[in-house]
């Protein structure tokens, strides 16, 4: 990390009084979080809440040293994993810390059945009335404007006795408003007031972009033997989900369609089944179907996390699993600088992004030290991302309306700027439509009116300006004149003009977390245009419906295992974005890629465990990650059968293998990640020979890589 972690809870604002001093752990007020959640009414005393009190950890320097020793193939300690008990004895909270916090919980009216003590945190399940006593706070119900789901969170200040400050890191679960779903629906609603030309051909799509991916096609392309199955009972993998669930009926339908025997698919479902509440199933259907199809015969855990939980909850909770899955896949991510959702909302949690990331990374290290491989999708919106960005990455006018369906085929000025004097924000439309500034502007009727008036003012003459829609109802700005030639329009505090890129308007790139963590294996997406030819980077520019993510972390340092590969990439002569726009000393991702386009998956028509079901085509790095996870589970199975330990944290092995012999990976040298899922930008990263931040080391050559691993 590039700046010191500030432990806000440890240095919290203290409410000092003669009676009882308190340390602030959250403060949610009336102006928060209006953009996505609506305050309803006070929670009932009998309503249930769940939260974690994270205790201060010990000996993190020793933990770090041990982690790298067991993860480095050149170390004498490689593969000599520790148990959770051993890790807890090393890093767990002090007895004094546990006793002090539990004493406070008991004094607040909780009984011992309402909390459980873990090595580095205390999990609490209790009623609102008791939680209010713990934090001297009030809990209210909030409703999401995106999903309609209800969440109980603190309203006002929440605090703990100051004598706990030396023992408590921070608290999760009482003030977060993380929204697990993407905000596509909300964005479309805010844009409904814009005057636009709809798609001229609703069924018009971009070129198909390659053959359909099925388990047999994928195995054949990457050299996975079709008859290879896991035979060791300890072979255990998992899929982590967040407010998402899979359909048993769809899984059975998928297996029957592709000749997979039910006896080879062993799945254990855990966590809340949210399908009755209409949570998404597409992601989880994809994850479970392809992870099990790749690793036939292996045991697979599917663990869903409740709405509002995030990756730290996953990492803490799965550490207690017995047995511990050896491989995990996560198809989720969010901007690394927005891990408390929005920068200006971090203060409500009383911890910041860096704290959350550091604590999560430590939890990832513990899982790696226990022998777990963690795969994380690199994101589906290229280098620039889409949600909660600045939007300040110029759209490439030569790739106008890349998904197809717009009334025009080109534009001279693909973006406009909407400035709002009242709050000082600038919305760069449509490239920044997922940004906070654009959401604020477009949800204001005066803002929408200003855009419409601007377009009408420039509709005539040589500019012929208009807003058009593609087949996915994304908006595009068409003009026949340059941005500087457009007439500026101002009204009600809004000023609309042609867009002009400047560095000061905001960052070009917004890397995601947890894929940017140095302690996970980041998986990008490739595209197979022809099964007889090499892959290219998956992009909407080549007919996909997503663009694989990649880039450099802004806040997490580059680990030594990839420093040589990254240095070679930066000096390879490939076109790079402006030097000020990315952190060359940051963690680079992805590490590796796999096909992420045109996967055929089974889906239940009723979004339940029952059929009728059908096959649908999906794209995403969320295709790549679980599929690769299944392949690595097969390699682990062979290692276990040879009385060798599982692979554990994979990255040092990957980069050392690539350095020793390049044909362990299928090098991807064509394409870039300049686009996101709707627009193609001027700036991003290109694939080249060897490692790059568009495709990583390339895709796996299963036969050669597994032989290499087994020979070590």
From TrEMBL:
Positions with a binding annotation for Ca(2+): 667-668, 690, 692
GO biological process assignments: proteolysis
Keyword hit for Repressor: no
One Pfam family hit: Peptidase_S8
Keyword tags: Calcium, Hydrolase, Metal-binding, Protease, Serine protease, Signal, Zymogen
InterPro entries: Peptidase_S8/S53_dom, Peptidase_S8/S53_dom_sf, S53_propep, Sedolisin_dom, Tripeptidyl-peptidase_I
Required cofactor names: Ca(2+)
Domain of life: Eukaryota
Cofactor detail note: Binds 1 Ca(2+) ion per subunit.
Name the record gives this protein: Peptidase S53 domain-containing protein
Native organism: Cavenderia fasciculata
């Amino acid at each position: 990390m590039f700046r010191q972690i500030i432990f806000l809870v440890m240095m919290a604002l203290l409410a000092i009084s003669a009676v009882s001093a308190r340390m602030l752990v959250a403060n949610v007020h009336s102006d928060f979080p209006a953009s996505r959640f609506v305050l309803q009414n006070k929670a009932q005393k009998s309503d249930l809440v769940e939260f974690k009190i994270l205790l201060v950890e010990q000996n993190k320097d020793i933990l770090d040293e041990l982690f790298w020793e067991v993860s480095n193939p050149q170390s004498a300690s490689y593969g000599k994993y520790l148990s959770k008990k051993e890790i807890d004895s090393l890093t767990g909270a002090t007895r004094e810390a546990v006793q002090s916090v539990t004493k406070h919980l008991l004094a607040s009216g909780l009984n011992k059945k309402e909390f459980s003590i873990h090595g580095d945190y205390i999990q609490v399940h209790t009623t609102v009335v008791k939680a209010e006593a713990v934090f001297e706070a009030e809990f209210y119900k909030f409703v999401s404007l995106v999903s309609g789901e209800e969440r109980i969170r603190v309203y006002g200040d929440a605090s703990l006795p100051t004598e706990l400050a030396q023992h408590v890191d921070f608290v999760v679960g009482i003030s977060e408003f993380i929204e697990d779903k993407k905000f596509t629906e909300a964005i479309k609603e805010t844009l409904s007031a814009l005057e636009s030309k709809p798609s001229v051909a609703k069924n018009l799509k971009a070129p198909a972009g390659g053959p359909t991916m099925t388990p047999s096609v994928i195995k054949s392309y990457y050299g996975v033997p079709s008859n290879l199955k896991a035979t060791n009972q300890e072979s255990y993998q998992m899929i982590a989900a967040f407010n998402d669930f899979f359909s048993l009926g769809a899984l059975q339908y998928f297996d029957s369609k592709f000749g997979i025997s039910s006896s080879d698919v062993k799945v254990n479902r855990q966590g809340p089944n949210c399908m009755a509440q209409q949570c998404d199933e597409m992601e989880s259907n994809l994850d479970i179907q392809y992870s099990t199809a790749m690793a036939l015969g292996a045991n697979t855990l599917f663990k869903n996390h409740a709405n509002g939980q995030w990756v730290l909850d996953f990492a803490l909770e799965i550490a207690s699993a017995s047995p511990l899955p050896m491989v995990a896949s996560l198809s989720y991510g969010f901007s690394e600088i927005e891990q408390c959702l929005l920068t200006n909302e971090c203060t409500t949690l009383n911890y910041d992004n860096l704290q959350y990331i550091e604590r999560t990374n430590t939890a990832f290290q513990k899982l790696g030290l226990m022998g777990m491989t963690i795969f994380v999708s690199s994101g589906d919106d290229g280098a620039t991302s889409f949600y909660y960005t600045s939007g300040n990455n110029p759209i490439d006018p030569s790739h106008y309306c890349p998904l197809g369906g717009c009334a025009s085929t080109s534009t001279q000025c693909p973006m406009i700027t909407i400035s709002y004097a009242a709050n000082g924000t600038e919305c760069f439309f449509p490239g920044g439509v997922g940004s906070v500034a654009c959401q604020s502007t477009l949800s204001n009727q005066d803002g929408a009116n200003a855009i419409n008036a601007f377009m009408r003012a420039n509709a005539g003459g040589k500019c012929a300006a208009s807003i058009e829609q593609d087949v996915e109802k994304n908006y595009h700005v068409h003009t026949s004149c340059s941005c500087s030639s457009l007439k500026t329009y101002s009204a009600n505090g809004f000023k609309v003009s042609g867009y002009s890129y400047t560095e000061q308007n905001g960052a070009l790139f917004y890397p995601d977390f947890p894929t940017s963590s140095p302690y996970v294996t980041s998986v990008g997406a490739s595209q197979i245009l022809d099964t007889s030819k090499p892959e290219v980077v998956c992009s909407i520019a080549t007919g996909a419906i997503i663009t694989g993510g990649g880039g450099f972390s802004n806040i997490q340092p580059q680990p030594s295992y990839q420093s040589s590969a990254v240095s070679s990439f930066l000096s390879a002569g490939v076109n790079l974005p402006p030097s000020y726009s990315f952190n060359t000393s940051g963690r680079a991702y992805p590490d590796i890629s796999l096909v992420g386009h045109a996967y055929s998956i089974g889906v239940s028509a009723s979004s339940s465990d029952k059929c009728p079901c059908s096959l649908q085509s999906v794209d995403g790095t969320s295709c790549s990650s679980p599929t690769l996870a299944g392949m690595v589970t097969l390699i682990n199975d062979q290692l276990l059968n040879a009385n060798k330990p599982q692979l554990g944290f994979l990255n040092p092995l990957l980069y050392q293998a690539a350095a020793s012999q390049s044909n362990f990976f299928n090098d991807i040298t064509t394409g870039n990640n300049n686009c996101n899922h709707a627009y193609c930008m001027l700036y991003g990263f290109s694939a080249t020979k060897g490692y790059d931040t568009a495709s990583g080391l390339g895709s796996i050559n299963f036969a050669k890589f597994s032989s290499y691993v087994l020979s070590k």
